[in-house]
Design brief:
- The chain has 143 residues and is mostly helical.
- The chain has one domain.
- It is built from six helices and no strands.
- The longest helix has 26 residues.
């Protein structure tokens, strides 16, 4: 990998770390914080009202966040195997839902976890489909 490619990958790794921290901040926010956001942010309140009216797995917040996490993970962790990246994102989904059991005003949902896992797989798949993951290592010697 050239120095330019290494810098580019380092930027994706920083973005992945920031997204991970943003995910933790969103997950660890107590119910009171969400209520405050709904009172003080008209667009957030409209989003929550619309999102609550959707069927279980259509949680747009989870789908967008974990889809984007999957795509960024594919770019940031180019040397990892697909299933390793997927396992890491599934573990993040499990931890984020289980952590909500102890946060006042929050609750864990199986449908949220399933949305996280499906979106992560889609983000990883999209990165592979767009060929932004690194290609498999070339063999040395005879083809």
């Amino acid at each position: 990998m050239t120095p330019c490619e290494e810098r580019g990958q380092a930027r994706w790794q920083v973005l992945l770390a920031l997204l991970g921290l943003a995910t933790l901040a969103a997950v660890l926010m107590p119910g009171e914080g969400l209520r405050w956001l709904r009172i003080h942010s008209d667009w957030f309140d409209r989003y929550v009202l619309w999102n609550d009216a959707q069927p279980g797995l259509l949680d747009v917040g989870h789908l967008v966040l974990f889809g984007f996490l999957g795509f960024v993970a594919a770019r940031a962790l180019r040397t990892w195997r697909f299933r390793s990246k997927f396992a890491m994102l599934v573990m993040l989904g499990i931890v984020s839902e289980l952590a909500q059991l102890w946060i006042p005003g929050r609750h864990a949902r199986l449908s949220d976890f399933l949305a996280d896992a499906i979106a992560a797989a889609c983000g990883l798949w999209l990165a592979r489909r767009l060929n932004v993951e690194s290609p498999p290592p070339r063999r040395v010697g005879n083809p």
